């Protein structure tokens, strides 16, 4: 039995969420256009971790402000009705995004466009890498899932239905990264996360999937 009462998300919160994700996408594209290619050692720098924490703290504050008065269960902050089924869907979703990503990456080179993952392991800078790992595989999935599959999914679903919630939050999630070639991969990833949110009625499995995907990608980059 799924715990927690549901409340309808007011239309004003959907407007607020739309403004938030539009601003995030605009800032990301502007930063990527103005900044050029990031340095290959960006995840070995303390400033990256600190900047990430500050950025996600601001986003989280806005999401929490927009979520005032909305029941946590409405945002997906409740356990799935069955963790066994949820884990099964999570594994299926993870495999799906790996397969789809591998196919699309042959044509799009999405991973190279983002350029965040280092080429090799540097033990002399392990501490800042671990700090960035925590941000990428811990803080980012938590905040982004609350933003897109939590508040965003609930707000769009209540206004336009579940199908629209999957499509709109997936596209918003993809655009938030400010990339062009990687946009299809990121949007599909967002759609798979939204599908998992719909199937489990919870953001906890989506947080776990997001964290696993990011963490495995970082570990593979410096070990394989």
Q: What is the overall shape?
A: globular
- Please compute the radius of gyration using only Cα atoms: 17 Å
The helix-strand sequence is: HHHHHHHH
Name the average pLDDT: 91
Q: List segments where confidence is low: pLDDT < 50 over at least 5 consecutive residues.
A: none
Distance between the ends? 42 Å
Strand percent estimate: under 5%
Sheet of most strands: none
User: How many strand elements?
Assistant: 0
- Based on secondary structure, the structural category is mainly alpha
Count of alpha and pi helical runs: 8
- Helix coverage percent of residues? over 70%
The gist of it:
This protein is mainly α. The protein has eight helices and no strands. The protein has helices spanning about 10-35, 45-65, 85-110, 110-115, 125-160, 160-175, 185-200, 205-224.
What tags apply to this protein structure?
8 helices; about 220 residues; mainly alpha; globular
